[in-house]
Amino acid sequence: MPLGAYVIWAVTGLIGFTYGIVFLYRVEKSGVKRWGAAGSVFKLGSPPNTTDDIRK
Amino acid sequence: MNTWILWSVIVVYFALLILIGRMGYKMSNNLSDFVAGNWNMGLLLVGGTFVATWVSSVSIMGFPGMLFGKGLVALTAIYSGFFMANSLMPIIGYKIRRPVMPPATIPEYFRLRFEPHSKKSGLQAIGGIAMAIGYLLYVMIQISAFGYIFSSITGLSYLASIFIFGIFVLYIAAGGTLSVATSDLFNSLVIIVSVVVGALIILPKVGGWSQMWAQYASINSPALEGKEVVSGSKMLTLLGPYSISTVIGMFISSSLGASVAPHWPSRMLYARNVKTAVALPMVSQIIIAFFVFGSLLIMGVGGRVLIGTLSAKSTDALMPLLFLNHFPSILGALGIAGLVAASVSTTNSMLFHGALAVIYDVFKNYAGKSYNDKALERAAKITVLAVGLIAIVIAIKPPEFIAVLSAYVFGFWGSAFIVPVYMGLYWKRLNRKGAYWAMITGPISYVTLDLMIKKNIISGFIPAIVWSLIITVSGAIILSLVYEPAPRECWEPFWEPEVSNDTEVAWAAARKELLAD
Predict the structure, then answer these.
(1) CB contact under 8 A, B72 and A2
(2) ipTM rounded to 2 decimals
């Protein structure tokens, strides 16, 4: 397969990881548990407040 | 292919689909569950529905078929745009899932972000109507395409095929978000296993990766009997028969435009928190762009090397023919189940979103009175059934204009929704007038300019979607700077973890049906 095809495939497939990881880091840094801050960048966190909590 | 084995696998597939979809029915206890999975779906469940909705029969047959007939342009000029759409989605997920009670639908996002005080939201209605029409067109196309393929594979009539398909899709979609998601998780597994196994069978038959590409490059026969020869060297060009401006237009439509097709941001709303919403497209991308499409790449390119010239009307027939004629019976039947799973999973999601748009974003929005949970949920199920039946009936003999119109849907949604979604989530000042400007002028300019380019009235050097973006973005900026900025209640939940009392009251008033017992 031509090199250009590999490059296009890799770039379009993986570029989201660059800022995606930054976003995960920013959520973690915010400390907002509801957003998913859970002690580690790649830990996704527990469920947020939802309608059940609002109903209480 | 042994017919008994084929039918056994298909029957087992449909039986498991109903059982697993039924689990989703039981998980759904109230309107919030039905509409949005209670905004509490973990990565596995929401990822499963993301992958399964993404991989449609258009992808699973169209992509290898294009590789077979037109060459690498299928990857470099067409599907790379869709991979880029996935790559853009963390930008949306990072903001749209922030509110403690997120919007239930994308049109409801337009309402809450731009006019939460309105008793009847024009933005929500415009978004809902655009969704309902777009999804109805797609559902009809999917049903019709499935009908032809299933009837050619099994020998059943086209009519029987579309009714069988329609019944299962209706059942799953009527169960709501959790029914769609649980069955999609199952469908994802079927799709992934079928195409990966397919690639693992094809690759050794064509001598491995390097040998496969060397043979592909030396092809000198037509893809379809009686058609012109496209040489191997042309099959390897990155742009194929398209000009660079056409490719740029397609890329922008497929990337920016597809990223705001409402079923994608909706899935980020269903995620249990912001991190899950961000991780969702990232993890799904690995599965879709590399595992699934890597396997489909091998099947398309390898299929061309193996078969040479197809005796069929269209290269879309490649995948069914490969599974039926070049695989051991049980694995070929599994492959056919993968094609069915791709069709079912995309169609049930689109049917659900289209029906929900009708009842929640248009009817409930403009009804002028309150409805309780149960009444709305019942109405939503009836709407799913009604919309689904309409789609099935029209698919019996689909008018030609449907295929023509469906080609505009992604561009239509993109031109309408790019500004309110991307700019709305990242620019506090974007106001109601700017959003209305974008949602009205975007689609009008896109369709008008595209027609003018096709008829050579204007040059196609700047694609229609680019023109549309210029018009919508500049108008939205001007209107947002000239007129009063959006009030705090509009943007605060997408920026701040804690919101003011005014914002809470405004959103609660706009959302009261979802909190009622």
Answers:
(1) yes
(2) 0.90
